[in-house]
Amino acid sequence: MLTALGVMALLAIVLGAILGFASVRFRVDADPLVDQIDAILPQTQCGQCGHPGCRPYAEAIASGDADINQCPPGGEDGIRKLAELLGVDFKPFDGEAAEPKPKSVARIDETTCIGCTLCIQACPVDAIVGAAKQMHTVIESECTGCELCLAPCPVDCIRMVPLGTSVETWKWRYPVIPIRTIKA
């Protein structure tokens, strides 16, 4: 019995050392440009750009396979930041991409929700909570407004509600240019 435990422990140590060596030896460095582009994207993972998430879209932009104007949740502000980062000219939204919409959050009508959990499975950011055959609800602070929960709902109890303008959500429409004081 002790011999078997000793052999298993020795085998675990040897395999761990091999895996540790392999992780250092075959490490792949990520492209820093992809990381910078991904940081600018809104992280909604909605797929409205034609890619399965924000990271694949960032990789496509970095490799030149996608343009900077295909992310509706990022809005024009996102396009401007991407253009500035990449040193290219600003482009309006791509005609083939979805049109930008105001920032919205999902709301579930509690009286018609049947607790099917299909919306929970569709939500890429886990903003919907609930249990099977129980009413579901949306954590508004986590909801990105991607609308992926709308299609799978069999009773159409989810609707998108635009966020109103408040101190927390209000932004300047145009970039603020600081006023410089001229010294005489």
From TrEMBL:
GO cellular component terms attached to this protein's record? plasma membrane
* Domain spans labelled 4Fe-4S ferredoxin-type: 104-133, 134-163
* Database matches in InterPro entries: 4Fe-4S_dom (IPR007202), 4Fe4S_Fe-S-bd (IPR017896), 4Fe4S_Fe_S_CS (IPR017900), Elect_transpt_cplx_RnfB/RsxB (IPR010207), RnfB/RsxB_Proteobac (IPR016463), RnfB_subfamily (IPR050294)
| Enzyme class name | translocase
Supply the NCBIfam families for this chain.
PRK05113.1, rnfB
Residues binding [4Fe-4S] cluster 1 are 46, 49, 54, 71
Tell me which Pfam families the record gives.
Answer: Fer4_21 (PF14697), FeS (PF04060)
Co-factor requirement:
[4Fe-4S] cluster
Name the HAMAP family for this protein: RsxB_RnfB
Q: What is this protein called?
A: Ion-translocating oxidoreductase complex subunit B
Where on this chain does [4Fe-4S] cluster 2 bind?
A: 113, 116, 119, 153
Where does it live in the cell? Cell inner membrane
Q: Which GO terms describe its biological process?
A: electron transport chain
